[in-house]
Batch of 2 targets.
Target 1
Amino acid sequence: MLAAVRRSGSVLRAASVANMAARAQPSSNMAAFRKTLAESKHVVVLTGAGVSAESGVPTFRGAGGWWRRYQAENLATPGAFREQPSLVWEFYHYRRHLVSATNPNKAHQAIAALQARLAAAGRRCRVITQNIDGLHQRAGSSHVLELHGALFKTRCTRCGDVRENWDDPICPALAGTGAPEPNAPAAHIPESELPRCQAAGCGGLLRPHVVWFGESLDPDVLEQAHTELESCDLCLVVGTSSVVYPAAMFAPMVAERGVPVAEFNLEPTPKTGEFGYHFAGQCGDTLPEALAP
Ligand code: BV8
Ligand code: ZN
């Protein structure tokens, strides 16, 4: 019995090693990918911070993930906002100010052009992004699913009112604040001078309308994302480290269905071995080549 268990264990191990070996070698055959794209009827493009990197928007991991002495992930939390609303608003003011001065790059534009071209042919292409910068929409993409909210929307902590706000600065007290240098002084803005709700008679403290770590994603957005992911016949996953959940599970879920998944990234990620394709390089270069008519 013991020998049989041991044998089956080694058989299982061998199978999983073979499977890993097979899985860990995604193709970088661009012609094969372009043939698959030409035949697809429903494409999902899942993006992360890397798609905006060439627009000058810092990514979360690596050097870009720091603002002053804080890691972005430690500021993008309800607890940080509860304890230091002025500091968190300085962080978001810095990002609003930076994104207001940037433009979509060739990767955003290639995705928008693909979506328009497929729509004209009666085929479907949907963008599901983890980013909050709005650059896909500014490049012309429509029906963008923003998993983690929007940098240029606010939500009232008192009445829940959600509205777009493109003002830079969003309130006078934030003008000239938000410098990212490690030793930049905090502005310590009194809560009464932080962004306040404009809904009649409210005046509650506003927060960015984004999903912070430890907060659940909007169920409607999640539902729409799952509908697209469960019915697409090709998935591109662009510029994401695939470490933030639940988004990190989305492309592997599509691959589990036997649907081709193509990863576009500077480097392999923890999920690369689960995908059929991996195209290494700046997505501002690899995507225009991959998605060209
Ligand atoms: C949730 C909005 C249920 C805010 C973001 C403990 C307690 C609570 C929760 C957790 C926990 N442990 C784990 C969790 C779950 C947690 C999580 O996944 N944590 C991680 C860190 C392990 N997730 C959550 O909390 C989510 N909610 O699970 O709800 C729940 C509820 C309560 C308790 C438990 C569970 C909410 C997650 C959303 C967080 N909000 N953004 C803001 O932006 O300010 S996420 C934020 O980080 C971004 O939106 C983005 O999604 C993410 C960063 O990921 P990437 O986009 O991948 O960016 P990154 O920098 O990492 O990578 C860039 C990639 O691009 C790299 O691979 C790089 O190589 C590549 N690249 C760079 N340049 C280029 C390029 N590629 C190509 N070309 C280039 N030029
Ligand atoms: Zn309000």
Note: The two ends are 60 Å apart (CA to CA).
Target 2
Amino acid sequence: MSAERKPVLDLDVSAARKDFPALHQEVHGKPLVYLDNAATTQKPTAVIDAIDRFYRLDCSNVHRGVHELSERATKAFEEARTSVKRFINARTEREIVFVRGTTEAINLVANSYGRSHLKAGDEILISALEHHSNIVPWQLLSDQVGTRLVAAPINDDAELMLEEFERRLGPNTALVAVAHVSNALGTVMPVQEIVRMAHDRNVPVLIDGAQAVSHLRVDVRELGCDFYAFSGHKVFGPTGIGILYGREDLLDRMPPYQGGGDMIRSVTFEKTTYNELPYKFEAGTPHIAGAIGLGAALDYLSRLGIDHVTDYERGLLAYGTELLESIRGLRLIGTAREKAAVLSFVLEGIHPHDVGTVLDRLGIAVRTGHHCAQPVMARFGVPATTRASLAFYNTKAELDALADGIRQVQQWFKL
Ligand code: PMP
């Protein structure tokens, strides 16, 4: 623990919960227990107010007008970029590209970097527990360019088999693309080692951080990764905004992803020259309010202290794991030693959709299905799971409610 880190007790969860208006409501006559944070997180008033202020007072386009509102909007938009840079410890704002979300960030890299730097026969190495958005863009690239997708296996605890991963890092590997944290099962991937192994062979690494940023400290310089993607809405910010971090020298060498306004320096019918980073990758009017909201979300999380969040959630996960393990007929899927606060499970004889529906009647929001990670479901021989995914505003009492709810589901189905 570093010297400036404060004790765990400093995360005052009941005070923090007050910042999230949506948590304080009843659903089907029961207090809401929101355990679907891997799908999207709730928003604090700091975020709602920042968006409200933009639309009430500062609404204007950015980088264009000389008038006061446009200057205010541009300032707020660019300050948000600085908040993102600070939050992930990037070197410069030029490395921070606003995109729609993780999905668009990965598609940007596949289209821009992939089509300009990769060729037929090159391999893209991923893991067996990726979200579809870190699989399908690479398959599209394979169709276009002739690259090949290779997946490194995971063990029965849903941990990456590092030796197997390293064995697949061969002479044809041209890019590694892995999740930082698995959305379906919660595994925290050994990204530091993955980056080291890949860089030893001069292979760049993209990390899908969609599920990491709300749980763990992310320092792109310490990780040494080449690209890092995440979505605003999974880190207490708005939907429709996300980040592609890219190392400046790499982004510099990549062609634009989309053409249009703001990404150009000059246009004639004969020749167009492109704007500097990061604007080269931000064609068209951006999601200005979204970026401002995301900046507010990251500032909020920084004030709370991401290390406190990690510590608190570790305790919550241990408590929830023990509770669920004590339920007869429940099988936890995903038991990695390094795990973020996700509890994915199946109940003997009851379909996950039925579990989710009954829990909803009790006011408990969980996700059921394949979680956009069908290959990992196939690996564990299940079509779907029920997933309770936690955030720092969840409590042990809510996990007690979940466990009670699951027992009620079992009674309902008389198992
Ligand atoms: N990767 C992971 C690990 C995710 O959990 C998600 C969202 N479930 C995505 C990518 C895609 O994120 P988005 O839909 O916000 O683009």
Note: The first strand starts at residue 26 and ends at 27.
